[in-house]
Specification:
The complex is a heterodimer of chains A (347) and B (288). Helices cover 42% and strands 19% of the residues of chain A. Helices cover 78% and strands 0% of the residues of chain B. Classes of the chains: A alpha/beta (347), B mainly alpha (288).
């Protein structure tokens, strides 16, 4: 009896010490770490706070949810390319990291990332990062492709996949034409490159689920993809895919956890974020499900030698080629979308 | 004899009470959101998050002026026309058979098969078609198993796949409206035609078709309107060929937070659809 009650008593004492139990509402992509049942249960046991999730399907939807429901969320995942915009619109608040145990272990360049520190204060705690490159079916290639040019290979006509996302399409075409993703000067070259790509495509994918389905059915033999997702495709779906950081470069992204401006449970939200950047959570997430790379150096160091993130993203030469995606003005996004739609419509 | 005024007033109140739920619902669920969208379509920016906005006609200038959107509008209307045509060609004779040719017992079973698509989730239907139409999929397998033919290529991710998926989804509208109007045709008319030597086909063409035209036309309108704005089927079955005005409108709302432009495109589409219906209404009347 006493033995069974002891953990409860400890949890209650802990909860009492941390300003009472709160219900924190988390807004994130579905199936992206924070909503893993084992993690949420462990957090709830340890702190007494309960966790409720809501999900979004695009960054725009996330921003829309923050704009239209002030005060509805306590923790939100924001891609660093959008953190500045969210901070400037007053959607998220600065985070005082005092008392967060794991913050000191964050990679210094990510903790001081300009976008996460928009408006001169930390608005997003760096959580995980990754790369958009491509992945291929290893049974279909005798020699591992290393260049983006594989997408324009006439032998693979009708068998390549690309994400239905205007910004990503334009940025990949920029890399393929030797330009920087954050400073595209020759849009005509981008358009021509994409125009040449269209007949090569089997179809466009928009979710991880799509991607796995098209890869499993053989519709795709090579397709653009996210590093963490490629990891999951191997671990969870047993797909024979290999991830590539293309020699022309790859699109890097850094995801931070932020606290919305209207949150009434700031302390509980900080406890949750601290839990999420803890190496113990990360190692289990990566081992059981497959995660992107951690921004916590201790967490990254705790992975086993065979871990995907060690092998693919631990290579300094590959890291050199990754360009972190910066903010893109809305006007530019709309231009890219129109270009992408014209190409899809065959105009 | 006219009823006394108090009775008429009571009758009017009764009518109002009967109509109120439907009209209140329509007002809340259709007219108010539609009015909000119409208002949005005249703004320069989505008015959330402290954005600056102004009143403009620019969204409509872009929606009507840029070749991309004109071309997509043309394609969406053509797609809607084609799907409607197939629904009528397949659904009208089916409605005739259901209403007049077969007995009541088999009618129940056939009816069930017709409306079955209505009971399943739209997304499930579309994904089942994706499985069927895929290269090396069920259809190829059946054809190659039963015949010496070899199937090449795949229907999935083509415009044809979009048409097939949409016809399947919307066929019940034409069958149901057609069935209702054909059921209303007296059996004596059909017997008269038959006794004068007309074949079943001739009966259908000369007697049933003209009399049930209004019902089928209503069904066709029920198909045409939603198909013109369809976005789910084109996206999933059409792949790269699946860009229509509906998918572009969806992108404006979900991908670039450009609600005003999405709204303007929606109203251009609505106006075009209403224009098509207005032009075809007299033609339907004349055909009778």
């Amino acid at each position: 009896m006493t033995r069974r009650l002891a953990p409860v008593a400890v949890a209650l004492a802990f909860a009492a010490g941390s300003a009472g139990a709160a219900e924190i509402r988390v807004l994130n992509w579905k199936g992206y770490g924070t909503d893993e049942t084992w993690a949420v249960e462990a957090f709830e046991r340890s702190t007494g706070h309960t966790v409720v999730h809501d999900h979004f399907n695009s960054e725009q939807e996330m921003l829309t949810k923050l704009r239209t429901n002030p005060g509805a969320y306590d923790v939100v995942l924001i891609n660093s390319a959008y953190t500045r915009q969210a901070a400037e619109e007053g959607l998220i608040q600065p985070i005082d990291t005092a008392g967060m145990r794991n913050v000191d272990d964050l990679a210094p360049d990510m903790a001081t990332n300009e976008e996460l520190n928009a408006n001169g204060a930390l608005h997003g705690v760096p959580w995980v990062w990754g790369v958009t490159g491509f992945a291929y079916d290893r049974r279909e290639f005798e020699e591992a492709p290393t260049s983006l040019e594989v997408f324009w290979d006439p032998a693979l006509k009708g068998r390549v996949g690309w994400r239905d996302d205007a910004l990503e399409a334009v940025q990949f075409a920029a890399l393929a034409t030797g330009q920087s993703i954050n400073d595209i000067e020759d849009m005509q070259a981008v358009r021509d490159k994409l125009q040449a790509l269209m007949p090569q495509l089997a179809t466009l994918w928009s979710s991880e689920n799509d991607w796995n389905r098209f890869m499993a059915s053989g519709d795709f033999v090579v397709a653009t993809y996210w590093s963490g997702s490629a990891n999951r495709s191997r671990t969870n779906f047993g797909l024979p895919v290999e991830f590539v950081v293309p020699e022309e470069g790859a699109i890097g992204w850094l995801d931070g956890l932020s606290i919305p401006a209207g949150s009434e449970n700031v302390e509980a939200a900080k406890a949750f974020i601290d839990w999420m950047i803890d190496p113990r959570f990360y190692v289990q997430w990566d081992g059981e499900v497959g995660a992107p790379a951690s921004a916590n150096l201790e967490a990254a160091a705790a992975l086993g030698d065979q871990a995907f993130n060690r092998i693919v993203l631990g290579n300094p030469e590959a890291i050199e080629r990754i360009e972190i995606m910066g903010p893109v003005p809305e006007e530019t996004r709309r231009e890219y979308l129109e270009l992408w739609q014209e190409l899809k419509a065959g105009l | 004899m006219r009823p006394p005024p108090s009775l008429r007033a009571r009758e009017a109140r009764g009518t109002a009470a009967l109509l109120a739920p439907a009209y209140l619902w329509l007002t809340a669920a259709v007219f108010v959101p539609l009015a909000v969208m119409l208002g949005l379509s005249f703004l320069t920016e989505t008015p959330f998050g402290g954005r600056d906005w102004a009143v403009t006609l620019g969204q409509y200038e872009d929606a009507l002026g840029k070749p991309l959107y004109r071309e997509l509008l043309r394609r969406s209307l053509l797609l809607a026309g084609e799907v409607t045509l197939w629904c009528v060609v397949i659904g009208w004779p089916a409605a005739f058979v259901l209403a007049k040719v077969i007995g009541p017992r088999r009618r129940g079973a056939l009816f069930l098969l017709t409306i079955l698509p209505f009971w399943s989730n739209g997304l499930v239907r579309v994904f089942s078609w994706a499985i069927l139409l895929r290269g090396a999929g069920v259809i190829d397998w059946a054809v190659e198993g039963l015949t010496p033919l070899e199937v090449e290529g795949s229907l999935l991710f083509t415009r044809e796949a979009v048409v097939i998926g949409l016809v399947h989804a919307y066929l019940p509208y034409v069958v149901l409206t057609g069935y209702l109007s054909i059921s209303a045709i007296g059996d004596d008319l059909l017997e008269a035609a038959r006794s004068l030597g007309a074949s079943r086909w001739l009966v259908f063409l000369r007697v049933v078709a003209p009399l049930s035209l209004p019902g089928v036309a209503a069904g066709a309108a029920l198909v045409f309107v939603p198909v013109a704005g369809a976005f789910m089927e084109p996206r999933i079955l059409g792949g790269r060929e699946g860009t229509f005005l509906g998918t572009v409108i969806e992108d404006q709302f979900t991908a670039v937070f450009n609600w005003p432009f999405g709204a303007a495109l929606s109203f251009v589409l609505l106006a075009a659809v209403l224009a098509v219906l207005a032009v075809s209404a007299p033609a339907v009347r004349a055909a009778r």
